[in-house]
């Protein structure tokens, strides 16, 4: 399996439209069923908003609804890039680094960082069984053993 690079990220998500299209395909992989028309219809993109509209009745769906992207003035490309940075780095990343990389304010970067992190920890299920770790540090210095004669 090859590592997902920044070049591949920029090719897959060149702008907000590509990010919105990715979300639409993720949430609605096949045709979208319109609840008003009660049939599978074609939905077209409304260019001024992050929604798709039914060709027959005008019912609108938003792929960003009920996600961390809903009601966010931050561009989807910045969100996707922050998610990429948080998942691609080995040792993690700080909100300050997200600010530097995306060009948003620190307050926005901090909010994005915490919302993404809460999503990453929401579905953690306690596991049972054996685990293998690459590096583990157990113990440390003994406290309270100062002075002469301390063992």
TrEMBL record:
Which InterPro entries does its entry note? Transposase_Zn_ribbon (IPR024442)
Q: Show where the Transposase zinc-ribbon domain sits.
A: 14-60
Q: What is this protein called?
A: Transposase zinc-ribbon domain-containing protein
């Amino acid at each position: 399996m090859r590592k997902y690079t920044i070049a591949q990220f920029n090719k897959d998500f060149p702008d907000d439209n590509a990010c919105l299209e990715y979300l639409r395909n993720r949430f609605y992989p096949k045709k979208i069923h319109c609840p008003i028309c009660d049939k599978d219809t074609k939905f077209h993109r409304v260019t001024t908003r992050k929604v798709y509209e039914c060709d027959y009745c005008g019912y609108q769906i938003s792929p960003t609804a009920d996600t961390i992207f809903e009601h966010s003035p931050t561009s989807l490309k910045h969100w996707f890039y922050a998610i990429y940075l948080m998942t691609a780095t080995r040792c993690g990343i700080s909100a300050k680094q997200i600010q530097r990389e995306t060009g948003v304010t620190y307050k926005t970067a901090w909010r994005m960082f915490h919302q993404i992190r809460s999503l990453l920890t929401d579905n953690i299920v306690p596991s049972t069984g054996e685990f293998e770790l690459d590096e583990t540090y157990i113990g440390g210095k003994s406290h309270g053993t100062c002075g002469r004669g301390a063992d």
